[in-house]
Design goal:
By secondary structure, the chain is of the alpha/beta class. 42% of the residues lie in helices and 12% in strands. The structure holds 4'-deoxy-4'-aminopyridoxal-5'-phosphate.
């Protein structure tokens, strides 16, 4: 038998299936109430519009274009449409600053590939999106903790990175309705981050996967918009990479995302794509362009209404059923509520008990921490849950947590 481990590259050592994913396989069992998957509700997909767009493109004169290879930068009408949308949120740019990828997950991989040599440092929040850690890990970086508004001496990031054998390259954040916490970065936190990035002379990766999913509260300008304002509107002088996605708004199965940034780095990213997969699916980009041009605003209104209702219902259920030693976030959008359990309670152990006894699933928080901390946290997703599931599932979870609580808590 071949011992594959002996010929794997060093980077493969950091590619591990999480235990949680193994546990979550149990979710297929029909009696489980799941708040685990951070995925859109299938019932909200614009199915008819997507089907009509495919039929139109493939059945009409566009079939040859849709089925052929295309340019690595992405389908030009889609890039133009995205540039128009970006302008509406304070990011004036041209199609030359927009690069289409196979989901925004691919942007994270490419930014890791472009910026991270082994032992370089990426700044991430504790917790952060676990898929970003997964993407960056392949490039063998170190991580340091980003705590917005902290008064940590900027030089200490440099020293810590040098001690680990590299330098700080970028700060990664999810400013809107963070995955996993649901929290939105304030204007002051965004300004602080740009100040820090300027002082350290590093890039900022703004993961805006949930940006359109605001249900209430005040809109905060994107970090790239603030960066642009600091440079007289000249995107070529900015250091921020705005990563967008159609996964949460239209449909994730088409795998279409994008990044907006200065064109010098966009050109480098395009070269990476040429080497990796040439370009994203031509026909899928054309379908997304067609659907976005016709129904985007109506679709956003529809999903906001549905998810906003579920968010509110989950917050109400938590208030009704959770013991007083449990805390949780109150997100203004997105798909997640982040719960902090009493000290000493372990989220992974709670999941094992919850699946076995009350048949409720969620994601333990630990996997979202670059240093493996956060044992007493869990992520609840409300995106696919009905009112009845939320009421019953949170009631069951509240009873289980009360029963499991350490005597002193
Ligand atoms: N960023 C965040 C914060 C996410 O939650 C996700 C999806 N779970 C992604 C990026 C990747 O999304 P996609 O590749 O489907 O655009």
């Amino acid at each position: 038998m071949m011992n594959w481990e002996t010929i794997f590259a060093d980077r493969a050592g950091r590619m591990k299936a999480s235990e949680i994913r193994e546990l979550l396989k149990l979710l297929e069992q029909p009696d489980i109430i799941s708040f685990a998957g951070g995925i859109p509700d299938v019932n909200l997909f614009p199915k008819a519009e997507v089907a009509a767009a495919y039929a139109d493109i493939l059945g009409g004169g566009q079939a040859a274009v849709g089925l052929q290879y295309s340019v690595s930068e992405g389908y030009k009408p889609l890039r133009d449409w995205i540039a128009g949308e970006m302008a509406k949120i304070g990011i004036a740019c041209s199609a030359g600053n927009v690069f289409i990828t196979s989901g925004s997950q691919q942007v994270l991989d490419y930014l890791g590939k472009l910026f991270l040599s082994p032992k370089d440092t990426a700044l991430v929040t504790w917790p952060t999106y676990m898929g970003a850690l997964g993407a960056f890990n392949a490039y063998e970086p170190a991580y340091d903790r980003l705590t917005p508004l902290s008064n940590r001496e900027p030089g200490s990031y440099v020293q810590a990175a040098e001690a680990k054998g590299g330098r700080v390259k970028f700060a990664y954040c999810v400013p809107e309705f963070h995955n996993p916490t649901g929290v939105t970065m304030t204007r002051a936190e965004r300004d602080w981050l740009l100040d820090l990035a300027e002082t350290l002379d590093i890039a900022v990766v703004e993961d805006a996967a949930y940006q359109q999913l605001r249900y209430d509260g005040e809109t905060v300008p994107p970090i790239l918009a603030l960066d642009l304002a600091r440079h007289g509107g000249d995107i070529e002088k900015t250091r921020t990479f705005y990563c967008g996605s159609f996964s949460k708004t239209l449909a994730p199965g088409l795998r279409v995302g994008w990044v907006v940034a200065n064109s010098e780095v966009i050109r480098k990213l395009v070269l990476i794509k040429q080497a990796a997969d040439l370009h994203s699916s031509t026909v899928n980009q054309m379908v997304i362009a067609r659907v976005a041009e016709t129904i985007f605003d109506a679709q956003i209104a529809k999903i906001r209404k549905a998810y906003s209702h579920r968010r509110t219902r989950m917050l109400e259920a938590l208030a009704t059923h959770m013991p007083s030693s449990v805390e949780w976030t109150r997100p203004e959008g997105g798909m997640f509520v982040w719960v902090t359990l009493p000290k000493g309670m372990d989220g992974a152990a709670l999941l094992a008990r919850a699946l076995e006894t009350v048949r409720v699933a969620f994601v333990p928080g630990k996997a979202f921490f670059a240093d493996g901390s956060g044992e007493n946290t869990i992520r609840l997703s409300f995106s696919c849950a009905s009112d009845a599931m939320i009421d019953e599932g949170i009631a069951r979870l509240g009873r289980l947590i009360s029963a499991e609580m350490p005597a002193a808590a």
